[in-house]
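Action item from last meeting closed. Structure (132 res):
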């Protein structure tokens, strides 16, 4: 692990509505409650989509890979995946690296989606309800 990188993944959860989210500080983004706490997640998830920015923002080298990943807790994160760019459905491990999230494919290690593994994208997340 590089400097700034931590094991697992720190997520927030709300004691009022049970939503899970990032960032972990501040009120719940779903209901606005201040009754939130951080917890550690394994950080395993599924790639929902991936792309490569050919002309990234200033300060980033191109092409710049990005992937949208839903971790087993139902939280979706925009991550920087290790090469090669993972296709949709790839099982990945997400880790925090400072303010960024990085993902490493678990597919090459023989890990394949099967019954009892990470739930299908969206399966564990309740429907979104905006704060009232």
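Sequence:
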């Amino acid at each position: 692990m590089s400097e700034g990188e931590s094991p697992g993944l720190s997520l927030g959860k709300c004691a009022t509505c049970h939503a899970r989210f990032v960032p972990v500080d501040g009120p719940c983004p779903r209901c606005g409650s201040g009754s939130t706490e951080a917890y550690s997640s394994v950080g395993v998830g599924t790639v929902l989509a991936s792309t490569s920015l050919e002309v990234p923002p200033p300060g980033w080298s191109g092409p710049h890979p990005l992937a949208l990943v839903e971790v087993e807790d139902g939280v979706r994160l925009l991550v920087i995946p290790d090469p090669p760019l993972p296709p949709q459905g790839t099982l990945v491990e997400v880790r925090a690296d400072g303010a960024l999230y990085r993902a490493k494919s678990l597919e090459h290690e023989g890990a394949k989606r099967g019954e009892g593994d990470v739930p299908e994208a969206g399966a564990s997340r309740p429907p979104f309800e905006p704060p009232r």
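Note appended to the action item: The beta strands are 9-14, 20-21, 36-41, 44-53, 64-71, 76-81, 91-97, 100-105.
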